[in-house]
Amino acid sequence: CINKSGDTELFLVEGNSAGGSAKTARNVYTQAIYPMRGKPLNTHGKELADIIKNTEIKDILTILGCGIGEKFNIKNLRYDKIIIMADADTDGQHINCLLTTLFLYHLPELIQAGKVYCAVPPLYKVTKGKDAHYIYNPADLDKFKGYEVSRYKGLGEMTSEQLWESTMDPDTRELIQLTTEDLEEVIELYDIIMGNSPAKRKTFIMQHA
To answer: Is 169 part of the annotated catalytic residue set?
Structure first.
């Protein structure tokens, strides 16, 4: 398993089970794994002094190596890519939002520099004999009539080989790079969806349902 780009990558992985498979699957020369022990802290509206008391956030900051706040220096960042790897379900999407909140409010320079990504795990694997494909969009199932369909409920259900092929191999995976041309606009959106006002969230959902 060779990362042809040579980029070093840190995977922030949902759950110990998936974290164990990811450690086995990874390219040990270029990929590091941090298994999260649950949902990370929602850092929206919290002061730096408060968030660094959280063990998981403190671990992530230590691993990144670039500091935070007045001590931030992107030159000290240890990885070329930071990849959030969570399940393809509502809990996984919530974890994506929680970690994105951390980067947006406390490490925005990493977003602006294009260092932060979300992995795209498959929803299904279809097989017919030796022919096999990973499916990331349910609509694509129609293209594989007569194939046996396996549904993945989470990253922890995959073997290390499946996790590598579908989600971690730079040659075959899909990544979403978290970028924006207007950081302030994105932060205003996160003020609504991650903030403390249920009324604002409800109004936003009703308007965009």
So the answer is: no
**What is the Cα–Cα distance from 101 to 95, expressed in whole angstroms?**
10
Question: Is residue 89 a contact partner of residue 2, using CB atoms and an 8 Å limit?
Answer: no
DSSP output for 122-156: -SEEEEETTEEEEESSGGGGGG-TT-EEEE---GG
Sort 4 into a burial class: Cβ within 10 Å, 0-12 / 13-18 / 19+: exposed
For this structure, is 87 an active site residue? Answer: yes
CA nearest 46: which of 55, 37, 54, 36?
54
Asked if 89 is an active-site residue, the reply is: yes
Quote the pTM value.
0.90
The token pair at 123 is 């929803």
Q: What is the pLDDT along the chain (209 residues), one digit of tens a residue?
A: 334 457 999 999 998 889 999 999 999 999 999 999 888 999 999 999 999 999 999 999 999 999 999 999 999 999 999 999 999 888 999 999 999 999 999 999 999 999 999 999 999 999 999 999 999 999 999 999 999 999 998 999 999 999 999 999 999 999 999 998 899 999 998 998 898 888 888 888 788 76
Q: What CA–CA distance (Å, rounded) separates 84 from 208?
A: 25
Name the active-site residue from 89, 109, 157, 169: 89
Catalytic-residue membership of 59 = no
Q: Which of 56, 91, 109, 174 does the annotation list as catalytic?
A: 91
